[in-house]
């Protein structure tokens, strides 16, 4: 499959995912008697949507599609940029802060990045205000079931990556109860894309 086809498929999915997420949240608001809708702000590289509702105190769901050149200094840290610093990137990023302190804040993103190489990255994690072991167990069990459908090595690997990535060294503690995080995923494009879509669907549900 040519790179343009991959980019178009990934971009189309991320646009669709943004719509699904925002529609679901608006339906949730409506269930609790709120008519609040997302405020949408388009920019040349995508669209950012913000909501302040009865259920979600403040939330943002952003889609972006950006291309350009990495700085030479930054490019040294990125695969596929040794002789060419051009890049193309598309993805969805979500931050949700519910009003109810018993419902955790949620963070999610998935992305597809292309240089002379191309890969997927992303993940999700939650940050509760109150400790709830049942909630933690349910969240991680859900992630493990989803990951295991693709590869039983994914969950332990990506959970560990998340725990390390979101560790707050200045406070000597983890951010919330963790989740999964992955990057530079370029094993098999079709299989990797299916996994990335499943990560998005799991976040929605």
Q: Could you explain the architecture of this structure?
A:
The chain is of the alpha+beta class and 205 residues long. The chain has one domain: Coproporphyrinogen III oxidase, aerobic (oxygen-dependent coproporphyrinogen oxidase). It has five helices and nine strands; from the N terminus they run αβββαβββααβββα. The chain has helices spanning 3-31, 72-75, 133-148, 154-165, 189-204; strands at residues 39-43, 46-51, 56-69, 86-98, 105-114, 118-127, 167-168, 173-174, 179-185. A seven-stranded antiparallel beta sheet has the order 1-2-3-4-5-6-9. It has a two-stranded antiparallel sheet with strand order 7-8. A hairpin with a 6-residue loop joins strand 4 and strand 5 (105-114). Helix 1 (3-31) packs parallel to helix 5 (189-204) and helix 3 (133-148) runs antiparallel to helix 5 (189-204). The longest helix is centred in the N-terminal third of the chain and has 29 residues, at 3-31. It starts with a helix and ends with a helix. The model has no long low-confidence stretch (mean pLDDT 95).
Topology:
Elements: H1 3-31, E1 39-43, E2 46-51, E3 56-69, H2 72-75, E4 86-98, E5 105-114, E6 118-127, H3 133-148, H4 154-165, E7 167-168, E8 173-174, E9 179-185, H5 189-204
Antiparallel strand pairs: 1-2, 2-3, 3-4, 4-5, 5-6, 6-9, 7-8
Helix pairs in contact: 1-5, 3-5
Descriptive key words:
205 residues; alpha+beta; oxygen-dependent coproporphyrinogen oxidase; 7-stranded antiparallel sheet; two-stranded antiparallel ribbon; 5 helices; 38% helix
